[in-house]
Amino acid sequence: MKDFGVLVPIVTPCGESGDVDYEGLSNVCEDMIDAGCSGIFVAGSTGRGPWFSLEDRKKICARVSEITSKKGIPLFAGCMASGIEDMLENSRAMREVGADYSVITSPGYFIYNHREIEEIFLRYSQESPLPVLLYDIPVFTGMKLDFGMVKRLSKQDNIIGFKDSSADIGRFNELNNYFESRDDFMVLQGKEHLLLESLKGGASGFVVGLVHIQPKPFINLYEAYIRGDVDKAQQLQANIITVMELVKDCFVKRPETSTLFHFLNYCLKERAVCRNIMMPFEGDCPENIKESAHEALTILNDV
Known about the structure:
Number of strands: 8
Helix content: 40-55%
CATH architecture: Alpha-Beta Barrel
Number of domains: 1
Number of helices: 12
Radius of gyration: 18 Å
CATH topology: TIM Barrel
CATH class: Alpha Beta
Largest sheet: 8 strands, parallel, barrel
CATH superfamily: Aldolase class I
Structural class: alpha/beta
Order of helices and strands: EHEHEHEHEHHEHEHEHHHH
């Protein structure tokens, strides 16, 4: 399988009125790239892709493209939508402003069976001007993609990889085994607690939002495993799992999606990377999230 490394689903910094903070966006990208990340993914879940208009997403992608093109790393753009025409319009728009790859999930809102989703993905891959990374995130789409579907779709020239945020390590390892001999296809893990296990199975790398807390331990985990230092990788994985448990505990007390943004926002501000990623309606950060985020930073700064 194709080696990749760490792909960052980048946050979208905002001003107090909710407008995009492009200076902050540049700062976050520079921080992640300087730490050793291998690519940037804009307009994903962590970047609040569905929240912004297409024009805003084009401007976000264009600003990030200025940075990735200079650094020589690929730019992935979320092209998710509720229908095939909007998905394709997103792909064309992101290509215009410098994206190298498109990322798509199952369309939202309606309920589909796997045959229908396969037909949608097939048409998208045939008409998209950008190569396609399929993204499975059942918590948002309401369904987990079928293994057989992924195998069939992977035969399309324009489909270059699969990101798995289903937390199904059994299926993930099946995918690793199936694509082992494909040096033109990548399989990426999307769950923080499965990073090392996924690399042991042959994964190309990973795409996780918590990398914003402190990117170095995530980069170091990948690099330690690649050079054969499994003990170091295990230590880093253990610390990342501890941090993930802190985030999960915050969600138990406050299940809103903005809980994650408050957590990441605290860490990015403490590291002096950017001022704000919060929307005006999301209010002030609860004290328990501040305390947990501070503890997470302490843990990851020490490794």
